[in-house]
Design goal:
Blueprint lengths: L6 E3 L2 E5 L1 E6 L16 E4 L14 E9 L13 E7 L1 E2 L1 E6 L2 E6 L17 E6 L10 E9 L6 E2 L5 E4 L7 E7 L5 E7 L5 E11 L5 E11 L5 E6 L5 E9 L5 E5 L15 E2 L4 E4 L5 E4 L2 E2 L5 E3 L7 E3 L5 E4 L5 E11 L2 E11 L9 E4 L1 H4 L5 H13 L9 E3 L24 H10 L3 E6 L16 H11 L3 E5 L3 H6 L7 H16 L6 E5 L17 E3 L8 H10 L13 E3 L7 E2 L6 E2 L4 H13 L4 E3 L8 H7 L2 H7 L8 E6 L2 E7 L5 E7 L5 E4 L4 H4 L6 E4 L4 E3 L5 E4 L4 E7 L1
Parallel strand pairs: 22-29, 30-31, 30-39, 31-32, 32-33, 33-34, 34-35, 35-36
Antiparallel strand pairs: 1-2, 2-13, 3-4, 3-5, 5-11, 6-10, 6-13, 7-12, 8-9, 8-11, 14-15, 15-18, 16-17, 16-19, 19-20, 21-24, 23-27, 25-28, 26-27, 28-29, 37-38, 40-41, 41-42, 42-47, 43-46, 44-45, 44-47
Helix pairs in contact: 4-6, 7-8, 8-10
Bound molecules: alpha-D-galactopyranose.
Alpha-D-galactopyranose binds next to loops.
């Protein structure tokens, strides 16, 4: 039997969406003649864990297909065909009729060890004269797959295709700003054979979409000799829209330049309070809070009616102490510098709830990955203060995986590795600055990075965290998957709840508030029971990475409909921020998101009332990223005390509108263009869907400026956003 294919067009075999599958690792499954009687049909557009394949490490797929000779006939490139497999979680080897044609990631048995590469798009080329291809006959494509971490297996919504590229498909356009401030545009070609065509360059105003100038250039480009047009002068706040048209086929490749443009106006030199004016703490728990006030330093902080039991550090605005009795305590805080004074009425709510607004801070994972050290944590925490992020409410400093020693202490308590000389000292220092201290563990025996988890030591670990002054625990499923796979009730939600409930109870027993962050990638609809296990937030998806594809899938696709589950004290977490210098290793790079995509990212996370944990090295922050993270009006949406998460009110092709009500009676509205072309959108066209009859005021939150209430036609660049606050 076979899972075959039909010929769609001469240049492509139509997408294959299912395959034969069986669990277990056996290299014989690569052979064309393998006996497939033990295999069953599986969907390859969805991970195998969505299809009742749980706790499986190795699995094999086999696809039978006919590869017609007509596929390559008359093409620019008749000399190879390309297998497009999409994503495979986590590692794969692909065999065509028994011959290895491609591999991505590292299998546990490989020299370099296990290396997950689930996010890489698999495209494997095979030469047309390769004897492995059986033209016009049956071929077997066998995929050996290793899953280090659920979900597992092949999951490409588009299915598997085989294509023969055209020359124009090898063309890409890049651009960059030179030292002289002028732009250079390059037409690249992946192939040696030159492509000839016309490059059109339009300079466009980023706010209005108006075309400021237009030029065309005849260009020829090959792999060794790209086509270059340089010395293009541009005005501030503009970008270049680029189009290359192939002379032979008339086909286009489009792109645009991505200059970093700062929208947030500079903060005043006089003091300005930037954070929500409430804070939740449990009776008797230590208070660690820092008033977020921007403005020139030095600055002094004071209060004449501070509740008894609390003190405020006049130099850095750190509030400390504790309050034993339940209730609301309201007082006024004053911040003064050479340029003036500002006051804020502030309420501490002593009760059961903490995290009345989503947590803001930093986590080590998206930058350092497993190479985090105490020094690196300290340098980011210091930068959080020095570069003014703490003045905007960023206060958690969280160590992710890789702080644990290989073995526990003889008494069973968890030990730190040599990279972390003293957790207690680090915690004390952070608390002295009014910041909070976070850590990471797993309910399993091992974490995702194969460090020690908390299994069978949960209470001991909660007590150790208390002794170190921990304020936040990220608790990551990972190693627990092995134990879970053997549990008789593993198909039932209770089996997912159990390990999280256990740690939740132990954290609550500690005489301090520990923000409880669940990380299990959204399994078993965690949003429906996260609050029940006393969690303050829960990851709703797998890991994010710094690409539009990842941002789009996690931020837009996977958050719609989750709004009812968030509220003060318990938040949906679509994962950490991917702006600034990231890299998950020793090697950091600038986020691969374009500036427009980064504005979209922060606006969306604000609308989603998401945890705002910065994932980059703060000691290397540039002005663009600081301004992105420190727009007080944008952050105020995220921190709004009503705590109502935005939902997707409009889904109209590439235009999505997400909105949320705010505590002052106004509404935050994000109009997103997720498509590849720039668009003009008139908000008035969607008034009915948004329940708007008339606008009293409209404010552009990124630019912090009031807009007309009658002209609601906005230019929204590809992957960009118009982020508004309106009153009705
Ligand atoms: C998982 C989590 C990440 C990170 C790593 C650490 O992948 O989802 O956020 O904590 O583990 O190993």
């Amino acid at each position: 039997m076979g899972v075959g294919s039909v010929l769609a067009s001469p240049a492509q075999i139509s997408p294959i969406k299912s395959a034969l599958f069986s669990e277990g690792d056996d290299m014989k499954k690569a052979a064309p003649a393998y006996n497939e009687s033990g295999m069953r049909i599986i969907d390859i557009t969805r991970p195998w864990s969505d299809q009742n394949v749980n706790g499986v490490d190795y699995g094999w797929y086999r696809i039978h297909l006919n590869i017609p000779k007509s596929l390559v006939k008359g093409k620019d490139f008749a000399d190879f065909i390309q297998f497009n497999l999409g994503h495979i979680d986590d590692v794969d080897e692909v065999y065509l009729n028994g011959k290895l044609i491609g591999k991505t990631g590292g299998m546990p048995g490989d020299a370099g060890g296990y290396q997950s590469k689930w996010s890489v798009n698999r495209q494997y080329a095979v030469k047309s004269n390769d004897k492995a291809i059986n033209w016009d006959g049956d071929n077997v494509l066998a995929v050996r797959c290793y899953n280090g971490n659920d979900p597992g297996g092949m999951f490409n919504a588009q299915g598997v295709t085989i294509t023969v590229p055209e020359l124009i498909e090898g063309v890409s356009i890049t651009s960059g700003t030179g030292k002289n401030g002028k732009e250079t545009v390059t037409v690249n070609n992946r192939y040696d054979k030159a492509v000839k065509g016309t490059l059109s360059i339009e300079e466009v105003d980023n706010e209005t979409g108006k075309v400021l100038s237009q030029t065309t250039h005849k260009v020829s480009a090959s792999a060794s000799k790209p086509g270059v047009v340089s010395n293009l002068a541009t005005s501030p706040g503009s970008f270049l829209r680029l189009k290359f048209t192939d002379d032979r086929t008339g086909k286009d490749v489009i792109a645009r330049s991505h200059p970093k443009f700062i929208l947030t106006p500079a903060a005043p030199a006089a003091p300005r309070f930037n954070t929500a004016a409430i804070y939740g703490v449990r009776p008797g728990s230590p208070v660690h809070y820092r008033f977020g006030v921007s403005g020139e330093r030095p600055m002094t902080f004071s209060s004449t009616n501070l509740p008894e039991g609390l003190t405020i550090n006049p130099e850095n605005g750190a509030l400390s102490g504790s309050l034993a009795k339940r209730g609301d305590y309201t007082f006024t805080v004053k911040a003064t510098n050479a340029k003036g004074t500002a006051e804020q009425k502030f309420t501490i709510k002593v009760g059961d709830k903490i995290a009345l607004t989503p947590p803001m801070g930093w986590n080590s994972w998206n930058c350092w990955g497993l190479s985090v050290t105490q020094d690196r944590v300290v340098s980011s925490a210091q930068a959080l203060i020095d570069k003014g992020l703490a003045d905007y409410g960023y206060s958690y400093v969280n160590i992710d995986d890789a702080w644990e020693a290989p073995e526990r202490n003889p008494d069973g308590t968890i030990a730190v590795n040599e990279k972390f000389p003293s957790m207690k000292e680090l915690g004390d220092w952070l608390h002295g600055e009014g910041l909070k201290f976070g850590i990471y563990s797993s309910p399993g025996d091992l974490t995702c990075g194969c460090y020690l988890g908390s299994l069978d030591h949960e209470l001991q670990d909660a007590e150790t965290y208390n002794s170190w002054g921990i304020d936040y625990l990220k608790y990551d499923w990972c190693g627990y998957g092995k134990k879970h796979a053997l549990e008789p009730d593993r198909q039932v939600t209770s089996s997912y709840i159990r390990p999280y409930m256990l740690m939740g109870e132990y954290l609550r027993r500690q005489p301090r508030d520990i923000f409880y962050s669940l990380c299990q990638y959204g399994m078993a609809d965690v949003w429906k029971w996260g609050e029940m296990v006393d969690a303050n937030s829960w990851r709703t998806t797998g890991d994010i990475t710094d690409t539009w594809e990842s941002l789009y899938d996690i931020g837009f696709n996977r958050q719609a409909g989750l709004a009812p589950y968030a509220g003060p004290g318990h938040w949906n977490d679509p994962d950490m921020l991917i702006v600034g210098k990231v890299g998950w290793s020793d090697n950091l790079r600038d986020s691969r998101l374009t500036p427009d995509e980064q504005y979209t990212h922060i606006a969306l996370w604000s609308l989603l009332a998401s945890d705002m944990l910065i994932g980059c090295d703060l000691s290397q922050l540039d002005d663009f990223t600081i301004n992105l993270l420190c727009n007080n009006e944008v952050n105020a949406v995220n921190q709004d005390i009503l705590g109502i998460q935005a939902d997707r009110d409009v889904l109209d092709g590439d235009i999505q509108i997400w909105s949320r009500p705010l505590s002052d009676g106004s509404r935050a509205i994000g109009i997103f263009n997720v498509g590849t072309t720039d668009r003009n959108v008139n908000l008035a066209d969607y008034f009915k869907q948004l329940g708007i009859t008339k606008l009293q005021s409209v404010r552009d939150l990124w630019r912090q400026k009031d807009l007309s209430t009658s002209d609601t036609d906005y230019f929204i660049p590809s992957h960009g956003v118009k982020f508004l606050k309106v009153s009705l």
